[in-house]
Amino acid sequence: MAASSARCVWRRAMVPSLVVILGATGTGKSKLAIELGKRLQGEIISADSMQVYQGLDIITNKVTAEECAQCRHHMISFVDPLVNNYTVVDFRNKALALIDDMHKRNKMPIIAGGTNYYIESLLWRVLVDTGENKDCGDAVDEAGNRMRELEKLEGSELHKRLAKVDPKMASMLHPNNKRKLARSLQIHEGTGVPHSRWLEEQRGQEGGDELGGPLRYPDPCIFWLHSDTKVLNERLDGRVDEMMSAGLIQELRDFHIRYNQQKVQDDSQDYQNGIFQSIGFKEFHNYLTAPEGISTEEKDKLRREGIEALKIATKRYARKQNKWVHNRFLKRPGNNVPAVYGLDVTDVSKWEETVLNPALQILDRLSKGEEPAIAPIRVEGAEQRNKLSYNTCDLCDRIIIGDVEWAAHLKSKKHQYHMRKKRKSDPDSDLPASTGEPPVSAGTSPSEDCDETSQDYSTHVRL
C-alpha cells in the first residue's frame, strides 16, 4: 500500500492530541516525524537537549535546511552555547506553550528526540517547578550557580545534609548521586518544602499513582522505533564516518577555538554543563588541545582515538535510550503509562512497509476513535517494582538502588564468592546455604522527578 493512500483526516478535537516518536539515536526519528508532519498538517518539536544550542550542527545531528522546509520545526538552535543553566523546566514551559498554540491552529504536535527527560516533562506532570526558572535572568543565574556550588561538595556531605532536611528523599538516593542530591537540597532551599513532599503531592493529583504524576494529555500516540542491535551498531558507526566526511573535525575545531579554548586554559572546563557535554565534543578533547609542536603521526593517532571514542559513546547512548523505553513504558504498569506502538527499523529498505504505513494506519484508526489493527507492545510483567529501594550488602561493601538490581546482585558471581568466603571463615554464620542474603536496609519511595536525568535511576557503585 503506497504511503500516500494512508492519509488521516483529523477532527478539530484532535485524537490523538499529540504524537511522540521514541527510539535510539540513528533509528530515523526525524525522518518519520517529517513524513508524518507533511501528511498530518503537523509541526515538529525537537526534544533534544543538545539541539537547543546554537552550533555543533553536525555532531548533534540537527535537521538540515531542506528538511526544515518540508515541515516546520521548533526548539532548535535558539540558546547561546555559553549558556549553561538552560534546564528541562525551561524546555517544558516553552514546548507546552507551542503545543497549546498548535492545537489552537489545528496543527498536530509531533515530538521527536532522544532526550528522555525532555519527553517525560511533556508527557507527565513529573517536574518540581519551584518558580526559579521564570523570566528572571538573575534568579536563573543564582539557581544555576547554587547547583554548581553544591555539586562541588562530596557526595557523602550532600547526602548528610539532605538527610537532615529531607530524610525520606535521602533514603532514596545513592550517596554518589551528587546531581540529584544537590537538586533535592536546592529545591528545599528555594521553597522551604522537602523534595519528597513535592513528589507526594504530585502523585496525589488526579490520574497520578505511585509511579508519578498524571499524564498531561489523555490520548498521546507513541511510536518506538527499534532495530536489531548489531544492525544499529553498524549503522551508528557508519553515521560517525558520514559526520567525518561532512566536516566534523572542522566544526569541532572552530567551536573549540571560539567557545572552549579559553575555558581549558583557565582550567574551568568540566564538560558537564550545556552544549559542552554533547557526545562527540569531549571525546575529541585530547585532539583539540594537543600542543602545536606535536608530530603529524601523533596528531593522526589522537584523531583516530577521538573517532573510536565517539563511536563507542554513541552506541552506549543508544543502549541507554532503549533501556529507558523498556523501563519507563514497557515494565511499568499503571494507568498513567500510555500504549506504545513498536515499529521495526532494522531493514531501512522496507521503510514504507514496516514503519511509515503502519504508523499512518495506526493514526488513522485512532483519529476515527477505532482500535488500531496493530496492537501496542504489551507491558512486560504486571508487578510493581521499586526502582529506588535502598539496599546495602555488607559482604560486598556496596549500596544498590532498585529491587531488580538488588535481586541480580544476590545472584552475581562476586556476591556468591563472598558468600562462600564468609561461610568458610565463619561456619556458624546464619547465611543461607545457597543464595544467601546479607542484612538489608530498604526504603520504599516515590518516583524522583526527572529534572536532570532520565528515569533510569538504578545505581551500582562501590563505596
UniProtKB/TrEMBL annotation:
Gene: trit1
TM regions (residue ranges): none
GO CC annotations, alphabetized: mitochondrion
GO molecular-function terms, A-Z: ATP binding; tRNA dimethylallyltransferase activity; zinc ion binding
Keywords per UniProt: ATP-binding, Cytoplasm, Metal-binding, Mitochondrion, Nucleotide-binding, Phosphoprotein, Transferase, Transit peptide, tRNA processing, Zinc, Zinc-finger
Highest taxon of the lineage: Eukaryota
Protein name: tRNA dimethylallyltransferase
Catalytic activity: adenosine(37) in tRNA + dimethylallyl diphosphate = N(6)-dimethylallyladenosine(37) in tRNA + diphosphate
Gene3D superfamilies named in the record: 1.10.20.140, Classic Zinc Finger, P-loop containing nucleotide triphosphate hydrolases
UniProt enzyme class: transferase
Residue ranges, compositional bias (Basic residues): 415-424
Example GO biological process: tRNA modification
Subcellular location(s) of the protein: Cytoplasm; Mitochondrion
Chain segments carrying region Disordered: 193-213, 415-463
Biased composition (Basic and acidic residues): 197-206
Task performed by this protein: Catalyzes the transfer of a dimethylallyl group onto the adenine at position 37 of both cytosolic and mitochondrial tRNAs, leading to the formation of N6-(dimethylallyl)adenosine (i6A37). Mediates modification of a limited subset of tRNAs: tRNA(Ser)(AGA), tRNA(Ser)(CGA), tRNA(Ser)(UGA), as well as partial modification of the selenocysteine tRNA(Ser)(UCA). TRIT1 is therefore required for selenoprotein expression.
Similarity field: Belongs to the IPP transferase family.
Statement: the UniProt record of this protein carries the keyword Transit peptide: yes
Main location: cytoplasm
Keyword Lipoprotein assigned: no
EC number: 2.5.1.75
InterPro entries: Dimethylallyltransferase (IPR039657), IPP_transferase_euk (IPR030666), IPT (IPR018022), P-loop_NTPase (IPR027417), Znf_C2H2_sf (IPR036236)
